[in-house]
């Protein structure tokens, strides 16, 4: 019969029990040279800490978490190089209560931003500016333009009157004349219903202390207001300071200050919000940092509490805690040299490290306290402790490191970098617990603690698990089968926006924008050889039901120009001279305004007794005339202020001329035609792109026309596929690597299966619970299942090894107590992540904690039943 104590291949480089001897020698050497070891590591830690503070950065760009070697990433990067003006945008979203307010506020703010070349490398209006002001009428359908022309033509006398006297007096005198004139025309009443109602509503709002400006644009356009009329965008590229968490803080602050100075505030019916990739990344960095800081502090506090319960010695706690902090700093330093900057996923290693690393300190400290209790001589106690803990600590470190290292070969750089840092962290913590920890204990000389057994109250549970073994196995077998079935229903949410806090301004704004497909940030783009090919592609894409619209540079060349220009020319002849005249009457006095109001109210009652809007306006005018004159400046702002700007814009629009590609502004051409002549095509989703199904259908449909299409929607979709593939690779890699490790250690297929079975059962049970509670897998929490393979092995193997030695009651053994404290330490770090204010971090912590609880349940209940009586009992 072979010698069961024969060394395995993992440790065959050290004959016999050489591993234990080497570790014992290292621990003894560290204890004998304790002061030197502590001073050297202290110096190294100080240097490493300073290096981390000055060099370690963080990048919240989720696209950077996917390998840039993938084909779709390279296509996306090429598009960014050809159109750099679309990279790193800080988007200003201006909403107004009326179209007039929205346009005027956006233009005023745009002019201020365009002057600050020190804060912005570019500022542009995608839906406004001189080009659209001049050619905007050409983009209206012919029938809509004709209606506008008719409306303006009918209003020409009134416009002339207001141009001559642009004041409250001029407005109400004009309405009085209009009432007389319309009353004498058959069918003319309906024409006044809408403008009179709009003026009455604005006037009444001022009287009631809730001022709402009159929209002259709405009156002139003679159509209902659409949501797009009330919103405009300003696209800026801010100068960024990457040494700060808020890289565009100066630009953002200037925008907010200027908006305030211009009176663009909610109380005046205008809101100014910031979003775009820069705002999202800046707020994401701040949210992640704040959440991770809270989780880090909470994790440390919880770990200190566990140390107090487990070690019961201030000196042992101090030694363990110092070892933990040194390991954390050194691991941060490793990260700064290897994967700098961190990403929102890899930054989680800090909290994970605390829970996983402190387990080593607890195990070493408890064993030392027990050995010290039996032997007062530290010179022999520490080497003996090292000898006893050599294999358990090495095994735990290797198993957990293998779980983290399984992420290394994946294309998901977010978890790949986390895996690299955490793998190094496990090596660092193992080395420190065998060097720094003994040195600190040699200097501090803590007292011994009596050996404690496991939980004697659990003996009936042990007996029950053996007595009802078949029923227990049947139950967990059923759970496993349900978990296998639930795996089909487990949803993977590949949208990184769902990992962000929806309450912060940048996220709330972008979610608002996505309600309108044509302002959605998730679009598909492709490059065509020339503008003709781009138009052909756009035509094919527009025919797809999944596409709301497909734009090219040619989209800015209006159709039916001859017919539209003829209408505009006729309107210019009619109203052009009226628009060109300037005011002739001096500003009115309060008495003149009051008299005009009274006269208008009287005319409305006499001439239009059957028109409800006229009677309501007459009543409002009576109230206004009876009010104090201090109300008139407000009424002027509400009723008159927007008129002059609208008439000026109309005057500019009447100068439109034939338009072709050569006449497009250079700024607009650069947005659609690359320097090498290739033309960009952009397709918008026909639905809210915050719905993953909309993105999926859009990408799949567009690829039937353009297989190599790229864009933000493709990036989101393909990132999800890359992450799912990374998960599969990591899981398989971890399972294979850990199986090989167990084979080398245990050398029995039965024992290897005993170790792996609870982990697999826990994995499927976790999937089942996720489906039942509606917890989706996403970019962040997907690391849970492969990682739990490594952590689970570190727990289960202790029970299997004890079972091989003949331990009959695993729950009452000291192993169960050690595993429970180790799990509590790990759970403390995972649980603190779950309490983070950042949804992605919290989701990661929640699934890790849930997986850990289920893992412990299977280890404590399923594994004893699966093992049955130990081999020594026949």
Automatic annotation (TrEMBL):
Residue ranges of domain SSD in the record: 298-443
PROSITE patterns reported in the protein's UniProt record: SSD
Gene Ontology CC: one annotated term: plasma membrane
Location in or out of the cell: Cell membrane
Cross-referenced SUPFAM superfamilies: Multidrug efflux transporter AcrB transmembrane domain
Primary location: membrane
Segments crossing the lipid bilayer: 291-309, 316-339, 345-366, 387-408, 420-444, 471-490, 726-746, 753-775, 781-803, 815-835, 841-863
Keywords recorded for this protein, A-Z: Cell membrane, Membrane, Transmembrane, Transmembrane helix
Membrane topology listed for this record: Multi-pass membrane protein
InterPro entries: Hopanoid_biosynth_HpnN (IPR017841), MMPL_dom (IPR004869), Mycobact_MmpL (IPR050545), SSD (IPR000731)
Alphabetical list of NCBIfam families matching this protein: HpnN (TIGR03480)
Name of this chain's protein: RND transporter
Species: Hypericibacter adhaerens
């Amino acid at each position: 019969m072979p010698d069961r104590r024969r060394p395995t291949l993992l440790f065959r480089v050290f004959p016999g029990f050489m591993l234990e001897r080497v570790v014992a020698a290292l621990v003894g050497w560290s204890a004998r040279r304790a002061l030197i070891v502590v001073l050297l590591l202290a110096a190294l830690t100080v240097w490493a800490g300073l290096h981390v503070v000055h060099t370690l950065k963080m990048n919240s760009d989720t696209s950077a978490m996917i390998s840039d070697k993938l084909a779709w990433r390279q296509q996306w990067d090429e598009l960014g190089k050809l159109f750099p003006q679309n990279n790193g945008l800080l988007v200003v979203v201006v909403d107004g209560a009326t179209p007039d307010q929205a346009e005027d506020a956006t233009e005023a703010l745009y002019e201020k931003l365009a002057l600050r070349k020190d804060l912005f490398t570019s500022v542009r209006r995608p839906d406004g500016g001189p080009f659209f002001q001049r050619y905007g009428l050409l983009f209206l359908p012919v029938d809509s333009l004709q209606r506008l022309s008719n409306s303006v033509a009918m209003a020409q006398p009134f416009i002339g009157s207001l141009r001559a006297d642009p004041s409250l007096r001029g407005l109400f005198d004009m309405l009085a004349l209009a009432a007389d004139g319309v009353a004498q025309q058959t069918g003319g009443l309906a024409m006044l219903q809408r403008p009179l109602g709009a003026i009455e509503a604005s006037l009444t709002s001022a009287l009631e202390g809730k001022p709402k400006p009159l929209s002259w644009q709405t009156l002139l356009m003679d159509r209902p207001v659409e949501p797009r009329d009330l919103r405009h965008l300003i696209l800026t590229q801010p100068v960024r300071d990457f040494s700060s968490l808020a890289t565009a803080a100066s630009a953002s602050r200037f925008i907010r200050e200027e908006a305030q100075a211009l009176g663009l505030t909610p109380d005046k019916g205008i809101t100014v919000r910031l979003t775009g990739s820069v705002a999202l990344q800046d707020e994401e960095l701040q949210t992640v940092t704040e959440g991770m800081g809270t989780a880090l502090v909470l994790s440390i506090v919880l770990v200190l509490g566990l140390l107090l319960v487990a070690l019961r010695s201030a000196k042992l706690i101090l030694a363990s805690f110092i070892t933990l902090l040194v390991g954390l700093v050194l691991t941060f330093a490793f990260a700064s040299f290897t994967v700098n900057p961190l990403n929102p996923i890899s930054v989680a290693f800090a909290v994970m490290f605390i829970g996983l690393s402190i387990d080593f300190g607890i195990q070493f400290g408890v064993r030392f306290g027990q050995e010290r209790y039996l032997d007062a001589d530290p010179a022999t106690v520490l080497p003996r402790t090292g000898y006893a803990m050599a294999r358990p600590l090495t095994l735990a470190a290797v198993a957990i490191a293998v779980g983290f290292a399984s992420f290394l070969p994946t294309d998901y750089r977010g978890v790949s970098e986390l895996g690299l840092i955490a793998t190094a962290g496990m090596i660092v913590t193992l080395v420190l617990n065998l060097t720094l920890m003994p040195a600190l204990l040699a200097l501090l000389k803590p007292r011994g603690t009596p050996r404690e057994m496991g939980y004697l109250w659990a003996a009936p549970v042990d007996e029950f698990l053996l007595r009802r073994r078949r029923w227990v196995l049947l139950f967990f077998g059923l759970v496993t089968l349900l978990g296998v079935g639930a795996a089909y229903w487990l949803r993977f949410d590949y949208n990184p926006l769902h990992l962000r806090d929806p309450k912060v301004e940048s996220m709330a704004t972008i979610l608002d924008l996505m309600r309108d497909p044509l302002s959605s940030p998730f679009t598909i783009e492709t490059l065509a050889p020339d503008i003709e090919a781009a138009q052909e592609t756009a035509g094919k894409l527009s025919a797809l039901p999944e596409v709301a619209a497909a734009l090219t540079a040619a989209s800015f060349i209006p159709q039916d120009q001859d017919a539209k220009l003829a209408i505009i020319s006729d309107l210019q002849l009619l109203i052009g001279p009226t628009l060109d005249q300037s005011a002739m009457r001096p500003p009115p006095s309060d008495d003149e305004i009051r008299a005009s109001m009274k006269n208008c109210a009287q005319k409305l009652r006499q001439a239009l007794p059957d028109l409800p809007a006229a009677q309501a306006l007459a009543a409002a005018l009576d109230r206004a005339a009876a009010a104090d004159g201090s109300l008139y400046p407000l009424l002027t702002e509400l009723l008159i202020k927007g008129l002059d700007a609208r008439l000026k814009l109309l005057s500019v629009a009447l100068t439109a001329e034939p338009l072709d590609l050569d006449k497009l502004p250079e700024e607009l051409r650069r947005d659609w035609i690359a320097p090498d002549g290739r033309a960009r095509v952009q397709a918008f989703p026909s639905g809210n792109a915050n719905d993953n199904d909309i993105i999926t259908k859009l990408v799949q449909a567009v690829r039937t026309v353009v297989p190599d299409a790229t864009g933000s929607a493709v990036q989101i979709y393909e990132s999800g596929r890359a992450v799912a593939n990374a998960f599969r690779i990591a899981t398989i890699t971890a399972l294979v690597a850990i199986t090989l490790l167990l084979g080398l250690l245990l050398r029995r297929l039965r024992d290897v299966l005993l170790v792996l079975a609870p982990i697999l059962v826990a994995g499927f049970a976790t999937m089942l619970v996720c489906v039942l509670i509606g917890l989706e897998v996403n970019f962040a929490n997907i690391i849970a299942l492969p990682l739990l393979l490594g952590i689970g092995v570190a727990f289960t193997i202790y029970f299997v090894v004890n079972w091989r030695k003949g331990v009959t009651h695993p729950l009452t053994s000291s192993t169960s107590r050690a595993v429970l404290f180790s799990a509590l330490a790990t759970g403390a770090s995972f649980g603190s992540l779950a309490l983070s204010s950042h949804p992605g971090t919290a989701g990661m912590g929640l699934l890790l904690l849930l997986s850990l609880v289920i893992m412990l349940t299977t280890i404590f209940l399923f594994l004893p039943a699966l093992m049955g009586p130990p081999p020594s009992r026949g």
